[in-house]
Amino acid sequence: MDRLPYPVLPALPPPRRRRRGFAWALGFLFLAAFLASLAGGFWYLTAPTGRTAIVRVPEGAGAAAIGALLEHEGIVRSGWVFALLARATGAEKKLKSGVFRLEGRGTLAVLRELEAPRPLTVRLTFPEGWRAVDYARRLREAGFDGEGFLALVERPPEGLKPPYDEGPTLEGYLFPDTYEIPLGTGPEAIVRLMLRRFAKELTPEREARLSVLGLSVHAWVTLASIVQAEAGSEEEMPWIAGVFLNRLEIGMPLQSDPTVAYALGKALPELDRYAGDFEADSPYNTYRYPGLPPGPINNPGSAALASVLNARRLSPKGKPYLYFFHAGGKLYLNETFAGHLRDLNRYRYGR
């Protein structure tokens, strides 16, 4: 066998370190690409959508339900990511219900907005002298639950009725005013809003005055509601209140037409004497039953409430007024029935 002219050297091992370094570099690149894709995906899923929508968030809805709703409305790109961020940031427990105008300015921005949102509101005015059924109709026309409101008024559950309301319903205690009511507000919240507003009218000074007059809060509101329905102007109210207080003092029936209308569920112009309306057997019919009816016949305003506390009861001769009527836009008062008939014939019938 021929020998080689030089010795054969053993083969060198592969450059392991270089291959290991290459593998690490390749792995790092893959990881960086993966993280970049995650970041890009996260940025996309939380980025602004540019959409604006009016969204109704139901009472008691969780982050997942709200997220799905927002995704459906185009406010966020992913409802799942919204819910994830809500839980991760602790915002889930702070999310509010209601009706809001939301802008898709990014998931985090929407989250912050729903933690302290400004709900859309409706400005509603409830005039003095309207009945609860009229309030319910106005609420229904504005998109609220008018039927639920009326049901609570007519059959108030325990805890909703004020202690001074001695009547069968909440009629009279739904204070007439202008309210800013958030869209989506439930009927009980609206009732409580009106009851709280009435409570502001019951000041310590007024309670002291009621004590002097010997009237309960319920009697005060009931009488004020009748005055509200009878008066043509605020200036007339103290005089009409005086007539009714004088009648109550001597046990004379109030004989107020608006109480009959309330008993029959009619408007005042709909009353028909010839159809027997004034014979209706109802405790609200003050022609048949003396004293005050079981409760208010409408929701009186501040002027009517004040008129009962500051009633004008006496004529210039110092005698109590017991009769009144309207003719030609003017209020006529009388101490006696004879004088009442005389003025009726003269000023109303032109005899």
What labels describe this entry?
mainly alpha; two-stranded antiparallel ribbon; two-stranded antiparallel sheet
Please, could you describe this protein's structure?
- By secondary structure, this protein is mainly alpha-helical.
- The chain folds into 3 domains: 49-115, Endolytic murein transglycosylase (Dna Ligase, domain 1, 2-Layer Sandwich); 121-199, no CATH class; 204-313, no CATH class.
- It is built from 13 helices and 6 strands.
- It has helices spanning 16-46, 63-72, 79-89, 107-115, 132-141, 146-154, 187-199, 204-213, 217-230, 237-250, 257-264, 302-309, 337-348; strands at 52-57, 98-103, 121-125, 178-182, 323-327, 330-334.
- It has a two-stranded antiparallel sheet. Strands 3-4 form a two-stranded antiparallel sheet. A two-stranded antiparallel sheet has the order 5-6.
- Strand 5 (323-327) and strand 6 (330-334) form a beta hairpin.
- Helix 2 (63-72) runs antiparallel to helix 3 (79-89) and helix 6 packs across helix 7.
- The mean pLDDT is 88.
